[in-house]
């Protein structure tokens, strides 16, 4: 079969082109989700710190930090917005569902890799290498196991919220005001995600957050939520520009204007 010929499953060159774009968007979404779960809380990035003096003269060290796993997360909302805009709510929800299944698959592989026999020694039930250090795989496995439950719950709540709100705003504005459905859906869903993942990690993952014993847990949790959410909102506002540009370009490239097909957006 020549390279220019269609595969039997492809209805037309235009159909094949549209499916390739969907594959890129879905792949970027799922790849970012995989990075998020593997990197997770493996490292916290220090953004800013200062000393806060209380009325009684006590000095509290306040640090704004961000989990490294958060870095690829905002791009997932841009991907689902593009998919929602051009491919409809059903496909966007299916991508979210596949992301959940991918999380389960990652956990299974991490579990399987840990239970299969290896060359490590075990001291007090913990695996160590010849130098007495925890092998990198088990360090990653422990952190991923600790964060994946929180991330899966937060992910499902936030992504389904994002898809629902995107189509709510799209229907309400009759397909107009891209900035509203792009930012309105992402900003609210990011608050759901950030709050859920921080609180679940705090309650169910031992040593999951680098809490300062000199500062109350409630204050530190509020700082973690505020820091993560602020960064996500800033990124969400900035991604309005690539979203507008991307929608305009994809209308031409895909030869499809979703605004003219409002009645069939969920097909």
Description:
- The chain has helices spanning 13-39, 74-87, 89-115, 136-172, 178-204, 217-238, 240-253, and strands at 44-53, 59-67, 121-123, 126-128.
- It has 267 residues and is mostly helical.
- It has one domain.
- A two-stranded antiparallel sheet has the order 1-2.
- A hairpin with a 5-residue loop joins strand 1 (44-53) and strand 2 (59-67).
- The protein is flat.
Number of domains: 1
Query: What's the average pLDDT?
Result: 78
Strand content: 5-15%
Tell me roughly what share of residues is in helical segments.
55-70%
Span from first to last CA?
32 Å
Strand order in the sheet with the most strands: 1-2
Low-pLDDT ranges: none
Shape by Cα distribution? flat
Largest sheet geometry: 2 strands, antiparallel
Q: What radius of gyration results from the CA coordinates?
A: 22 Å
Number of strands: 4
**SS element count, helices:** 7
Structural class: mainly alpha
What distinguishing features does this structure have?
267 residues; mainly alpha; two-stranded antiparallel sheet; 4 strands; 63% helix; flat
């Amino acid at each position: 079969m020549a390279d220019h010929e269609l595969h039997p499953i492809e209805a037309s060159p235009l159909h094949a082109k549209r499916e390739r774009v969907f594959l890129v968007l879905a792949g970027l979404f799922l790849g970012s989700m995989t990075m998020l779960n593997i990197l997770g809380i493996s490292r916290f990035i220090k953004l800013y710190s200062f000393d806060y003096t209380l009325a009684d003269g006590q000095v509290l060290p306040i640090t704004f930090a961000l989990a490294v796993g958060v870095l690829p997360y905002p791009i997932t909302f841009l991907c689902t917005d593009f998919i929602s805009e051009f491919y409809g709510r059903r496909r966007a929800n299916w991508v979210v569902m596949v992301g959940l299944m991918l999380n389960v698959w990652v956990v299974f592989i991490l579990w399987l890799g840990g239970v299969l026999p290896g060359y490590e020694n075990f001291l007090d039930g913990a695996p160590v290498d010849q130098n007495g250090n925890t092998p990198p795989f088990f360090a990653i496995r422990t952190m991923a196991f600790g964060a994946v439950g929180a991330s899966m719950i937060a992910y499902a709540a936030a992504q389904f919220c994002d898809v629902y709100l995107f189509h709510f705003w799209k229907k309400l504005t009759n397909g107009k005001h891209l900035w509203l459905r792009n930012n309105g859906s992402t900003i609210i869903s990011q608050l759901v995600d950030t709050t859920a993942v921080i609180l679940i990690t705090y309650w169910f993952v031992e040593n999951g957050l680098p809490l300062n014993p000199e500062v109350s847990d409630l204050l530190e949790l509020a700082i973690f939520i505020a820091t993560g959410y602020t960064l996500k909102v800033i990124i969400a506002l900035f991604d309005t520009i690539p979203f507008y540009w991307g929608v305009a370009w994809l209308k031409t490239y895909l030869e499809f204007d979703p605004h003219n097909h409002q009645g069939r957006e969920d097909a």
